[in-house]
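Onboarding guide, step 5: your first structure request.
Type a short instruction followed by the sequence, for example:

Predict the 3D structure of this protein.
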Amino acid sequence: MPVKNFDSDAQSCVHAKHERRKDARPGELLAAALELFVEKGFAATRVEEVAKLAGVSKGTLFIYFASKEELFKAVVRENISGRFEEWNAEFENFQGSSADMLRYCLTAWWEHIGSTKASGITKLMMSEARNFPELATFYEHEVIQPGHALIGRVLQRGVDRGEFRAIDMKYGVYIVLAPMLFLAMWKHSLGACCDAGAQLVPEDYIALQAETILNGLSIRQTPPPLSQKNTAS
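The system replies with C-alpha cells like these:
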C-alpha cells in the first residue's frame, strides 16, 4: 500500500495559497489606493500607507505599480474608464426609447459609480488637477472624453429618432453631467457632514433631474394658435 506524502501535500497547499494571495495583491492594492486617494487626496496619500492598508510591503507595491501616478491611473481604469466598453455595448443593445435610455444612464451611474467610493475620484480631480497636469491630461483622455462621447450618443439617438429636439450637443452633454457632478461633490463634501434633515435622497434627486432634462428635450405637439381654437369651437 503506497504511503501518502503528507509533507508534500502540505507544501502544495501552502504554495497554492501563496499563489492565490499573489494573484489577489493587485486588486487589494487598488482597493486600498482608492480608499486613501478618496479620503486624503492624491498629494497627501503616501505609497507606504497604501501598502500597509493592503497588507504588503512598499517594495511589493512597486512590483506591480512603478509609481504613485501609475497606481492612480490603475485605480481610474479599474473603477471608471475600464467600463466604457461595457457601457457602449449597452448603448448598442438598448431597446427602449431615448428617454428611457437617459433615465437608465443616470440611475445606472449612481448605482455603479456615484454611490461608491469611485465617485470620490471626480472630487479629487476637480480639486487637484492644476497641481498634477499629467494626471489631469490622463483623466481627460480616459474618462472625460469617452464620457462626453457616450452621453452625446444618447442625446443624438433621441434627435435622430425624432424624440428629442435638436440642441447644441456640446452643452447638452454638460446639462446631463451637471446633476451627476453635483451628487459626486455633495457625497464627498457637505453631504458627509450635514444634518439628517438636509440630506439628499440621491435616487429621488436623479429621478427629478432626469424628468426636468427630458421636459426640455422632448418634442411636443405645438398647440394651435388661439384664433384657430376659437374658430374650431
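Each response can be followed by summary notes, for example: The chain has two domains: 6-72, 80-217.
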